[in-house]
Fold Purple acid phosphatase.
Amino acid sequence: MEPKLVLLVFTLISATATCEYIRPPPRKTLHFPWDSKSSSHPQQVHISLAGDKNMRVSWVSNEKSSQSMVEYGTSPGRYSNRSQGESTSYSYLFYSSGKIHHTVIGPLEDNTVYYYRCGGEGPEYKLKTPPAEFPVMFAVAGDLGQTGWTKTTLDHIDRCKYDVHLLPGDLSYADYVQHRWDTFAELVEPLASTRPWMVTQGNHEKGKHHVLLRMGLTLLCSAHIQITMSTRISTTGSRADVAKVDRKKTPWLLVLFHVPWYNSNEAHQGEGDRMMAAMEPLLHAASVDIVLAGHVHAYERTERVNNGKLDPCGAVHITIGDGGKQRRFS
């Protein structure tokens, strides 16, 4: 059987009887009540892939003495394993973050539900690891922000069966307003604590150092995802590594970055040209299958293309930047 990859690509579409696209009107930015939690209970819990059979658990606590420890097991309330991680914090102008924890757990079994607790107290969470056999399912939505449409997109994703969420940049739209990272992380926690979220940097990830501290990820201009015959999923941001992928063992090779190279929308024309000139030959030589981008707040998919022309050996480019932040040009 041919290995099967399923992409659940989320966009917001309204259509008339003649199938003409009508862009839905913007929805208001979500407003969150002021929450001055003073306990060490975990907040903003999210997980990400951390190498073969490992998962990184990240969270924030307001208690400076809280531990960077995760207890986990395959039965509710019974934690047969424990991992110790590290913590950090940062300040920016008048803002001071809570204590930011990152702990890697594993090795974990494939396609298995684990129950876990952060910091030795607080609520129990559960996560599911990706499967060891095809199909593997990805949910993809970029440019989320924090609007009413963001909530709609998250609700759609939550109703689907998927293994990994891919987000090609522009997460919280915090820009330099740091507390917006706190509200965004609380907003996505119900999903991000149960399935790994793999993200790349967008133009609204202002203060890259702050994003790295929060997400516990290496945010690069691009990342590629290898899906091997045994559905081992690995990510890297190295250009050299793309060329080294063994395609006999890796039938699917996806690339994730923010600014699209192929774009028929009037917004953001030509912004990816320099990156495209430098990297498209590399992607073509590696026979990359799919390129996922955001930035343009719309959905668009190309045929297999390379160097601006149809090419049966080129990649399919998918722009999926309509996850929720519906300002027209950013």
The CA atoms of residues 26 and 326 lie 6 Å apart. Residues 179-192 form the longest helix (14 residues). The radius of gyration is 20 Å. The helical segments are 148-158, 179-192, 208-215, 239-244, 273-285.
